[in-house]
Amino acid sequence: MSRRVPVGVSVSLAVLAAVAVAAAFAPWLVPGATAQDLMTGISGPGPGHPLGTDDLGRDVLQLLVAGARTAVPGALAVAAGSMLIGNLIGLAAGYFGGWVDTLAMRWADLMFSLPALLVAIVVAGVLGGGYGPAIGVLVVLFAPTDTRVVRGAVLEQRHRPYIEAALLKNLSSWRIMTRHIWPNIASVALASAFLNFAYALVSLSSLSFLGLGVPAGSPDWGRTLADNRTQLLANPWAVVAPGLAIIATAAALNIVGDWLHERVDRRGRTR
Amino acid sequence: MGWAGFLLRRFAGTAAVVLLLSVGVFLLLYLAPGSIQQTLLGTRPATAETIAAIQARHHLNDPVALQYLRWFGDVLRGDLGTSIRTGMPVSDMLGQRLPLTLALVGYGTLLAALAGIPLGVLGALRRGRVTDRLVVTAGVVGLSAPPFAVGLLLLVVFALWLGWFPVYGTGQGAGDQLWHLTLPAAALALGAVGLLIRFGRAALVREMEQDYVVFARARGLSGPLVLGYAMRNSLVPILTAAGLVVTGMLAGTVLVEVTFALPGLGSLLVDSVTFKDVPVVQALALLLTVLISGVNLLVDIGYSIIDPRVRLGRSVS
User: Fold this and answer.
1) Which residues cross the membrane (chain B) (predicted)?
2) Contacts of B251 in chain A (CB under 8 A)
């Protein structure tokens, strides 16, 4: 295995680092990002506003930085929530086998056949609660990805001597699963959660674009796109900039996620 | 297991899934905040008569299970209810908007196949070189970029700056309509191109390493002929990708239709969801359920046509 990190991955890591910095320090970097200036209104790039302003007179560049802070926490919540549920079910399915396994896998098949975004649109839209229900729906629909990956990894561990030893010591199944098996498969579980984070970020920004996510006026990339798409002629950058931010972040997350997956996969095989 | 038994089992499985999901679709009515009468009334005044009419129409005094059965029976007879927002029969609204969505998805699929399959083959044949890496990267970007962001960028570049395509609208006449649908279809196709590159390239790379390919080459068979053999054997993963392409397009068309302000089923779904027009949302959700289950069934049957071992109960290699 070569130790060199591919060019695409290093570029992606740089993009993600920039997004992470923006997300962590947005309130200090751009304290006035959401300050409206209705007198100015929408305008193209000019002095003081390198990317122009949007229809509420907000600086597009500052909105872009503030948007990272809106994008990351929701996606993190989805990734963490589905990781918890998916890992518990995956551990149980792989460890106990039999009908537990069958039931878990049928459930995963069913969830897989549903397009997550459409279900989120319908359920979150009808419930009408905005961000909260959308996150709940995505947690349930993304969990099966983790379940499948974790179950596969557990099956590989199930008949190893250390589990036999733990069984002979009369340890509880719960303890064996969480304290003995999970640490051995944690890297696989984390790589899977990372890819879920990428999907969650894109899905949540899609929902915000459709007006079913963050409230109007929030500095969200999808929302900014939606709010400014009727003003293309006045300032196309108010649409181009958040669009590029979403595409770059999503692509970077997927490239790094695939790379992580491949690495832990290979390590598992050689060990 | 013979063909009849195989088909019967698959049909039964699909029917079970559709029934299960139809219960969920029915219960959407109970999910909406506020009372069911309120939801069904919408903006109409809540008088004794209107409430009585709604209770009679939806049998709200019956047990929930009976309500579901009546609703499902109506659906089977083609009665999808009345829209709260427009007062029109839901089936008429779907009928009006279905052609545009079908055209968009069809056009998008065509573009995706025309771009994705050759690029996947190119990547596999130039494996490990610069061309291959470019193709793979383009595939990941296509796969991860949301269609609404892509659509708006296409709009800015090709409609606003270059002026090659119209900015909004659906156009008059067949040729003009096709021209108006090109940018939306391209935005919709990009994700599918990414899928086809990922699955197609991986499958073909695997096949090109097989002994029969080496042997065919050693016997002096021409390159295109060998490629033909390898491609036929990589059809199973491509079929998996095709199933994902269709479900991805159904989700993508919602975003694309809203982005380009096209009056299709996707924008109808968003409008209805925003207005809490539950009968229309239910009808669309049910339609999507049937479409997606149907596609999954076709893919399953397709596997067994391409690879008879599937039908015999062995797993796909």
Assistant:
1) 12-32, 98-122, 134-161, 181-200, 235-260, 280-306
2) 115-118
